[in-house]
Amino acid sequence: xxxxxxxxxxxxxxxxxxxxxxxxxxxxxxxxxxxxxxxxxxxxxxxxxxxxxxxxxxxxxxxxxxxxxxxxxxxxxxxxxxxxxxxxxxxxxxxxxxxxxxxxxxxxxxxxxxxxxxxxxxxxxxxxxxxxxxxxxxxxxxxxxxxxxxxxxxxxxxxxxxxxxxxxxxxxxxxxxxxxxxxxxxxxxxxxxxxxxxxxxxxxxxxxxxxxxxxxxxxxxxxxxxxxxxxxxxxxxxxxxxxxxxxxxxxxxxxxxxxxxxxxxxxxxxxxxxxxxxxxxxxxxxxxxxxxxxxxxxxxxxxxxxxxxxxxxxxxxxxxxxxxxxxxxxxx
Length: 332
Ligand code: AQP
Hints:
Number of domains: 2
CATH superfamily of the largest domain: HUPs
Bound molecules: adenosine-5'-tetraphosphate
CATH topology of the largest domain: Rossmann fold
Number of strands: 5
Helix content: 40-55%
Shape: globular
């Protein structure tokens, strides 16, 4: 059975984008993989987080993951900062990765924006920590959204250079799994921007804890154009907002764009948005209800995360100890 590792930042409430691009696939992968899922709080602080907000968001993220169907009994769910092996290996990888490689990372450029000099050093070396997250478990498959592919290529480059420099075959090659028909969900306010949990506008996204009224209102207010829906996918070219809403619908019902347009082509957005909102409420309301139930029992949630930490350490500690030995660190 192949080992999967994947993480999500507690940088806000998880969104519909996180759900369709990542979490939903994680749930399915549990059937035939050994899965390690992590709330990556170390990654979250590469951009300043208010400590109280971070603590709350970390709990909420864990609850939502469980509510979506992550199984903490058969698989492993834990908080990244509780397993020190991530940091130990990340430092080694900071010394293996080349500055030129990091300079090519488009996500750093996107996240740092124009004021690059003022971005944290952590944001710059974030891909090295991500490589350590995966390699600390010798995971071979990583389900990610399209936007993370470049970081996985870097993780493979780091592994190869480590193996080459130390004359070993220690870290395996990682295979990205880009799954699902809606690999990239876009902002409800701007079809050219990805839906993000840290977007300053709450109206740009559907949060997985939004109630039915909020979901309906956000979809009603979602940006569109004045034309009715086309009856063929080609008609979505140059209409990013329409394409996004059709893509979300398609991902939820499990058909392609063509299937959705065969049913809804020719309709105005008023009618289509109502159908989409109903579908979203149907799929997401049970998740929000279960997350609320889990959050009402903080001790129960902590126990699940502590068990996850112990299981994660049992795998990662021996691997990272061996990496340290290969590097030449003494353990007198
Ligand atoms: N809009 C999206 N469409 C599809 N997949 C998405 N993912 C994120 N946004 C979308 C996927 O969710 C996983 C977890 O992401 P993350 O939290 O580690 O970081 P992110 O990609 O930066 O997600 P956000 O929501 O945009 O967070 P912030 O706002 O903090 O930057 C990843 O597999 C990602 O591809």
